[in-house]
Amino acid sequence: MIGGHPSQVSPGAPRVDILSGQYSARLVLQSIMRMRFRKALEFAVENSLLMVLGTVIALIWANTDPAGYDAAVHPLHFAVNDVGMVFFFGLAVKEIIEATASGGALHSFRRAAVPVIAAVGGMAGPAAVYVALAAFAGAPELLRGWAIPCATDIAFSYLIARFVFGPGHPAVPFLLLLAIADDAFGLLILAVFYPSSEVRLIWCAVLFGAALLATWVLRRLRTRSFWPYVLLPGSLSWAGLYLGGLHPALALVPILPLIPHAPDDPGMFVDPSERPHDALNEFERWWQLPVEGVLFFFALTNAGVPLGGTGMATWIVLTAILVGKPLGISLSALLATMAGLRLPAGLLRRDFVVVGLTAAIGFTVALFFATAAFPAGRTLTAAKLGALFSLSAALLAPAAAWVMRVGRFGVAPPGMGMPEGHFASVSAPPPPPPGMRTTAPRRGGVIRNTARS
């Protein structure tokens, strides 16, 4: 027998103990490996590395076997761009819903004023530079792509901002608020200026009206799950936009604000397990990981362009975003302060040049705008390369910070870490207590504010 008095232990007991020990060690090793794999997967998801992987695969494939690449990805364009991206933009609009809710980062004028003005400048600047360069180059056919350099990729910009400024610097939450406002304006631009075909308002009005009616009925029936809202009103909205000539990827943008959700925003860096279990948050929990898969296929199907396909559109897009973003954000912030609005405590004027360069990483939305602006061909290829090359801002931002002695490369401004004034409510939070995991801001509902108005 095993156990009991030592005199009663059989001669085979040591062998059993050895096997039992080996089995226990194997279980511990498997548990450690599972934990490491889970952490690696979470890191990849939270930092959009799946999309980076898709981009790398697409570029290598398109430049080594262009015919095979085109044949493989062409059938995927509709499923990815017109169906899968519905849920990406759904998670983006969730950010806007929460930011504008009671207690949200953009709820009151005093919180929203400077980042919203900076977002407007950060879109007007690149658009103006793009239009000026296209006109100067005598290329009116490129004018349709004016919105491409207006985009900001929240995930990558956030990562670079944390590296350049450090997690406690007020420039980081400021950039997040700017990016949320940028997303809102970007959705409006996509809907108004980039219809997918000839606009047919009757189809759009009838089916969109039916989608709103279905949403109202579901609310009256006290439907708590997000699935009925996605499957019925969401499908009607998608059909209305598609048949009406507008971009169907925006199908959930008018539906999600109407589904049950918390009346206020719980905070900027809230652990996912502590968020309310309403339909809107459940939508985010369910779709967060699948959307990263969608973004992998989005990059795979849209980023595969021949590196030799650069053209005038490439350099116009790249110059507009690298020059126009920091210029527009810096000038708009300066005008805001001249008008009497206050900057966040600890945020200096020279920081805005680096914030602008950090926000110049367009990538995801810039690629989407390019595919919406131009038909397949050399111009689209060149414009996509300009959007991809905007990733160079990830190197230019730290270089500019080093030259200007900003963020990690300079002396901390007075009051940083203990922000004062009206923007203190969106400063980075103190370190979490042991055992609590804070989620890095990413697409779909983790960028939140910490205080109430």
Compose a concise summary of this entry:
The chain has helices spanning 13-46, 49-64, 66-73, 77-99, 109-136, 154-165, 171-193, 201-220, 227-231, 233-243, 279-302, 312-338, 351-358, 363-373, 378-389, 393-404. It is an all-alpha fold and 453 residues long.
Written overview of the protein:
The protein has 453 residues and is an all-alpha fold. It has a domain of 311 residues: Na+/H+ antiporter like domain (Na+/H+ antiporter like fold). Helices cover 60% and strands 0% of the residues. It is built from 16 helices and no strands. Helix 8 runs antiparallel to helix 10. The radius of gyration is 25 Å and the shape is globular. The chain starts with 12 loop residues before the first helix and ends in a 49-residue tail after the last helix.
Give unreliable regions as ranges: 413-453
Gross morphology: globular
Rounded to the nearest angstrom, the radius of gyration is 25 Å
CATH topology of the domain at 48-194 and 247-410: Na+/H+ antiporter like fold
Helix proportion:
55-70%
CATH architecture of the domain at 48-194 and 247-410: Up-down Bundle
Strand content: under 5%
Helical run tally? 16
Number of strands: 0
End-to-end separation: 69 Å
Average pLDDT metric: 82
Main sheet characteristics? none
Instruction: List the helices and strands in order.
Output: HHHHHHHHHHHHHHHH
The CATH superfamily of the domain at 48-194 and 247-410 is known as Na+/H+ antiporter like domain
